[in-house]
């Protein structure tokens, strides 16, 4: 059994992206987006994503619609939908996200967005074969 006090674990995370757990069908990831930072516009063709915001404020753009997000908000992103999340506040935007199926390499830790993008471009950040 894996057990996380997820809000605390997410708040203590200094990294842009950290994979906490990878199962056969889903993956749990925590993220910290710095002030003025963003996840970056992307589309996961075959992966649904649910993001829950722990602290900070930002904007969620999903499928061309934009809404403000803050602590306690949850946003669902269906597979194949263009999306981005931007930190609009003075403090980090902290969240945890569940991907189904997994989207990233098991155990991946990316300290910055740039490091995450490099890992994706090089193929280092491929999810495990299921």
From TrEMBL:
Coiled coil feature spans: none
Sequence segments annotated as region (Disordered): 104-130
CDD domains: cupin_Bh2720-like (cd02223)
Biased composition (Acidic residues): 117-130
InterPro entries per record: Cupin_2, Flavonoid_dioxygenase-like, RmlC-like_jellyroll, RmlC_Cupin_sf
Pfam families: Cupin_2 (PF07883)
Boundaries of every Cupin type-2 domain copy: 30-99
Biased composition (Basic and acidic residues): 104-116
Name of the protein this chain belongs to: Cupin type-2 domain-containing protein
Organism: Phytohabitans flavus
